[in-house]
Amino acid sequence: MELDLTRITWPVVAAVLLAILIGFGLLGAAVTPVDAQGEPVLLTAQRWTAARLARQAKAETEALVQDAAELRRLLEREHPDPIEAMLLAQRIYAEHRTGSTATVAARQALIAAAEVTARYAVGAATRQDAIDAYHAAMASIEALSPESPVTPSPSRQHLPHLQSP
Q1: CB atoms within 10 A of CB 112
Q2: What is the DSSP string of 49-87?
Q3: DSSP string, 131-157
Q4: DSSP string computed for 97-123
Q5: Mean pLDDT, the chain, whole residue set
Q6: For 25-60, what is each residue's pLDDT tens digit?
Q7: pTM for this structure?
Q8: Is residue 158 classed as helix, strand or coil in its secondary structure?
Q9: Which residues, in sequence order, are CB contacts of 95 under 8 Å at separation 6+?
Q10: How far apart are CA 46 and CA 20, in angstroms?
Q11: 3 state SS of 30
Q12: How far is CA 104 from the centre of its chain?
């Protein structure tokens, strides 16, 4: 099979190149960030790194909120399953032991809350200790993102009705 390039003319090549150039221009206009005044912002290496770190911190925060919701569901039971509590604590530790420095306090607080909840499930800690650790973790997570349109506000996920008898 032969490819015959003799029929391609310069006007056709110029039109294709112009269409590609216009396409790149439209793509660039769509993805270029703008500042508060509507001016395009040049993405320097520092801004690119800052944006990447912000996306990473946001993803970690969303994962923390989801894991805190699982911990809450476990705490809402009168007698949580010790094996389920231990597995959840191990998973939370494995997933959140490393991450960005922006989320370190919230990650450590959630790991501590999961550990206290696992100890509560086996009878080595009180229910109030587990609830207090959960509230401390939620306060740390809430400090990362006071408002989040994707997930419900962590402050609404607190356990106000759970108290030790």
Answers
A1: 18
A2: HHHHHHHHHHHHHHHHHHHHHHHHHHHHSSS--HHHHHH
A3: HHHHHHHHHHHHHH-S--SSS--GGGG
A4: SS--GGGHHHHHHHHHHHHHHHHHHTT
A5: 86
A6: 999 888 888 888 988 888 889 988 988 999 999 999
A7: 0.69
A8: coil
A9: 63, 67
A10: 30
A11: helix
A12: 13
